[in-house]
Amino acid sequence: MNPWDLIILNPILNFLVVLYGVLFHNFGLAIIVLTILVRLVTMPLTLKQLKSTRRMQEMQPKLAELQKKYAKNKEKLAQEQMKLYRESGISPLGCIVPMLIQMPIWIALYQSIMRAMAVTPESLTDLSGHLYPWDMVNKLAPLQSHFLWLNLGRPDPLLLPILVGVSMWVQQKMVAMPSPDPRQQSMSNMMQWMMPLMFVILSMSFYSGLALYWLVSNVIGIAVQYFAVGGWGGLTPVVQMLKRHPAQQPQAAKGK
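^ that's the sequence the OP posted. Answer follows.
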């Protein structure tokens, strides 16, 4: 057995199956609870990543000034940028390292859901090869895949993919900050639409159990961003606009 399966994948997969047994043989609830637990375990890294990202975004005007000032001297520009990072107490890798540490856990969770659904005889055989030799685990396979209106072993054609896309757009919009660089701002705006659209397409193609995991993870990310980092972030103008409209309607009616 390879180290990946032994150390990371199999423990998460077996824990997912145990949760399925504890939660009344409801695989949807097992996915939701496991996603929440994984996000709680990785919360310190998530908070560090979000705060580093926000601080890097707040530094963008100063970095843009340096790029303009030393546009013809790349070596001097690099020196001044590193000096600015040191003075601000920010590491350029502060946004990347926490995410890289979490990646193996996310991948293992993804693979665990894929294997646990075991929609074919071949995949059921593969699942049995990853389960621990415990009666309480082995007797639960194969897992029941129905949850709400979903068959978690099949793609959902519309509603769940839309929820995944909307939640991802909200999360990205909250994190986004205006950039003084028009090209960087244009790229950021494009990514805010491209990533949610890509996950909508993926959610329409993959098992809905994975789409459920993505949705729950996005909702938790929105909550963490709102309560831990502060407010709606880049989504604030949209929220303020939505709040103004209901207040204006009674006034307009009163005026008539």
